[in-house]
Amino acid sequence: MTKVLNLLGVAASLVLITSISFEALTNATFSGETIYTRIQLGVCLYFLLDFLLLLVTARDRWRFFSRNFILILLSVPYAWLVDYFAFDFSSETLYVIHFLPIVRGGIALAVLVKMVVSNRISGLFIVYLALFFAISYFQTLIFYVFEVRVNPLVKSYPDALWWASMTVTTVGSNIIPVTTIGKICTAVLAVVGMTTFPIFTAYITALVHNFNEREKKRVRP
């Protein structure tokens, strides 16, 4: 049952990512009730139900609750609550708040990979790979939302993609951020690239080495 719940959690997060991407690319204001707030409410209710089911079926409920309390915080429909109680935040702040429940899906993905993949190293590599693409994509969306209205070099989403690809590979982009959030995204994405690519290189090197060792053993008489 745990595998199914985690799989559904990943699927629910993909729905959130799709809806928040749609709002970002259509230049939504992220204020008031939107499609995303309604979707987030439904998905977060599922996340809370998922946590309750896992808590009920856990052998040591108190230990499970104390170790996974963060899941409750990540399952709160913040965007819907902000709209319902009419809290006054800027549209950019609201956009950042929108991402919090998506982290819950990332945790579900990590747990699911750990359960499905028997090889621990391969499992960690898959998780790193998923996190790399997820962080890069979210940084691109955030950068686009904050820069598109004030940065003359960011005229469309492909410009943000170009910035992300050049930044994460540490090549350097001709697009210079002008907002504080844009500068933070640039620094974060560069750090992600510098720390992640060596992991990929080490993993591929290990695969090639293991393959060569198996071939040597196979051809020996």
TrEMBL record:
Transmembrane segments: 36-56, 68-87, 93-113, 125-146, 187-208
Keyword annotations: Ion channel, Ion transport, Membrane, Transmembrane, Transmembrane helix, Transport
Topology class, membrane: Multi-pass membrane protein
Gene Ontology process terms (BP): action potential
Record domain Potassium channel: where: 133-208
Main location: membrane
InterPro entries with a match to the protein in the record: K_chnl_dom (IPR013099), VG_K_chnl (IPR028325), Volt_channel_dom_sf (IPR027359)
GO molecular function, one term: voltage-gated potassium channel activity
Subcellular location: Membrane
GO cellular component, one term: voltage-gated potassium channel complex
Name of the protein in its database record: Two pore domain potassium channel family protein
Annotated source species: Pusillimonas minor
